[in-house]
């Protein structure tokens, strides 16, 4: 479904990220993307969503290389924008309509999809936004904005959903709902998170970047979660000291996950 082949990226300031990044995500897979701050998780998700173009290598969607030319073609671009969506870490960037109702309806309208009112009603209801349909998106709380951004994406009925740190501003009830909804949906998922509990529930596969943007692990999530050295390289485990009576020792801990 999605393939990165020898991908490298260069920021406009000349700084480079990734070198020869290779992985494939097949339809129906649920993968989590782990790595320390600045590893390149958000950048990777933007590349996967066609918002950034690689400086080297190829990113393919359904076997088609995502070139600037193909992304300019109306039919391809419409189908791609409906099927491949990204929830930003900071969703303000996605919200610009006058009301919550208009915001959810916007994407389906732009893409010419049917049953717009039903889509709005369904996803506003699922995300408990139905009491806020006439509110202005900018007046919502951070977590409500995140839920609205998610409703906007789900209203497109996408096949591939990339989520950048979805648990950062969602309350535990919404995170629980998200896990159930996404697991039941059969959608292909790529989720960046520092939350190992969420990762453990959502993902089957882990892609782990180190602090230099190198892919240091691509394999079963369960195996990764029991490898504290790997988790330390991913910024997900840390070494700290303990005192037991008069003696002190140091060992590794995962933030919200205990390896056994
Ligand atoms: N607009 C930009 N111009 C130049 N460099 C940038 C830009 N945006 C991000 N970077 C750099 O790219 C690298 C990767 O950033 P990115 O946001 O992808 O990391 P991340 O893994 O998502 O981090 P976090 O866990 O903190 O969200 C960082 O070194 C960052 O400084």
From TrEMBL:
One of its GO terms (cellular component) is ATP-binding cassette (ABC) transporter complex. The keyword Cell membrane applies. One of its GO terms (molecular function) is ATPase-coupled transmembrane transporter activity. Gene3D superfamilies: P-loop containing nucleotide triphosphate hydrolases. Keywords: ATP-binding, Cell membrane, Membrane, Nucleotide-binding, Transport. Residues 2-237 form the ABC transporter domain. Transmembrane segments: none annotated. InterPro entries: AAA+_ATPase (IPR003593), ABC_transporter-like_ATP-bd (IPR003439), ABC_transporter-like_CS (IPR017871), ABC_transpr_CbiO/EcfA_su (IPR015856), ECF_ABC_transporter_ATP-bd (IPR050095), P-loop_NTPase (IPR027417). Pfam families: ABC_tran. This is ABC transporter.
